């Protein structure tokens, strides 16, 4: 067990948040660090134009949280998709080769159906990081979910697995800013979300010693995944945050 003094002497752990443009990556960064330092937008506009880092201490451990350019930005005519993906691939590859990628956070919006979810997972986790770095998923935009926010994961976890996506952990959250939480219920959900994400990072960052999923999918798995991708547009339930 690592003591508090040993934790404080550890170098900062690199936590890379990736995902499509407009899913709330920058808002997630602000939730984690506890301030509005990362620029956000209330509409579907890509705010992050380059990879940016923010430092935070969680459980006496230092973390470097990386906000990255939104993937598939070209879908909405913000940035060409290749322009967004190329620097992130280079950035991740460089850090991974130096052994400096400690955790990947896949940010997914609960209400957004997309056919790129599996492709991004395979590219940035299985291919670039070779399945050797823990990856977790954070589901955003659940502030209006009926019942517990985690119910969304209970309903949809198996669909991720069927599409070949496995995670070391998950969090179902709201990333609304404090100024947007106009009720006691929303403020509590936001506070709960911050605690959950902090715990997720603290318990999974730096896990080593086993590959959580196989690196490159074989031909049969690739065919299976290809056949399942088309179902994503239905199981992400775009009309409801649940």
Written overview of the protein:
This protein is α/β, with parallel strands linked by helices. It has a single domain (4-235), classed as Rossmann fold, CATH 3.40.50.300. It is built from eight helices and six strands, in the order αβαββαβαβαβααα. β4, α4 and β5 form a beta-alpha-beta unit. The longest helix is centred in the last third of the chain and has 21 residues, at 184-204. The chain starts with a helix and ends in a 7-residue tail after the last helix. 38% of the residues are buried.
**Total DSSP helices:** 8
Strands of the widest sheet, in order across it, are 2-3-1-4-5-6
Sheet bearing the most strands, described? 6 strands, mixed
Named at the architecture level, the CATH assignment is 3-Layer(aba) Sandwich
CATH top level assignment: Alpha Beta
Give, in order, the helices and strands.
HEHEEHEHEHEHHH
Radius of gyration: 17 Å
CATH topology: Rossmann fold
Name the helicity range. 25-40%
The rough form would be described as globular
Find the CATH superfamily: P-loop containing nucleotide triphosphate hydrolases
Counting helices, strands and paired strands, the structural category is: alpha/beta
